[in-house]
Amino acid sequence: MSSVSLVSAPVAAHQSHPSEAAHTSSACLNCGHPVPDRFCGRCGQDAHHTHRFTMADMPHDVLHSIWHVDKGILYTLRTMVRRPGPTIREYLAGKRVDHFRPLSLLFFITGLYALLYAALHIDMMPPRDPAMPEAVYQMQASSTTFFMKYLSWFYVAMVPAWALAARLCLRRGGYNYAECLIIASFITAINNFLTLLLLPVTYAYSGTPQIQSFSLYALLLVTGYASWAYGNLLNHTTLGWLGRLWRGFLTFMLGYGMVMVVMMVAMFTSNWSSIKQSVQQQAKAKQEQQRNAAPPVDRPQ
Fold first, then answer.
1. 216-238 in b/e burial notation, b at 16+ Cβ within 10 A?
2. pTM of the entire structure?
């Protein structure tokens, strides 16, 4: 009799929390694993948001999809702009649940920038100077269009190069190459994000004489941020702020230089026939100009 009472006591105590009992007995609708808490321990699905969809859910789902992708895109952007060094060091140390993954962030921002840039048909060339030959202007316009159209994607492709530059210039920070890939992905994503924020002004100056000056200012902004962000990753070292900033600047410029070399090779390779034709036309025009400018030769009577 006593054994029955001993067995029934814990059962009664357990049944005093019917919601807990019901929740414990539920199974994950994604993988079938028992869910003792809000999230499934096997696949991570939220067991509290698996009800049937209704129209009332749509506004929340749309906003959640835009602003809370992976629970951290806005948080990551904000912290990376305000304190890039501590943010990346925390991520590398394991505090990752609140952050957007660096490669996903890089591809998301770069894809959005490329889409908007193509949709707006931005012209990065100023009006042609009358003193410049039409063929030369068209060659520069074609090269600039190619350069700007794929610039953000070249940044993505050259992340391994920036990581190598970080490995060399930030070696006092103790980062291995894999960690430098994470560092370069984060900082390149924010560089593209800053360029994305400047897109309305770029569109306003499209095709005007001011577009080149604005492009230079935008490059200075990106260079300044990247130098500061890379240098922030040495805050835990004994280097002074000037030494950290100098190493951050070297990191960015080494990677940027490699990007420029690759892009120039790609540009000349893809436009070699038009460049060759333009050079030939310019040489013929110069010869014709010299022939017309030559003084007439006096012939003997």
1. eebeeebbebbbbbbbbbbeeee
2. 0.69
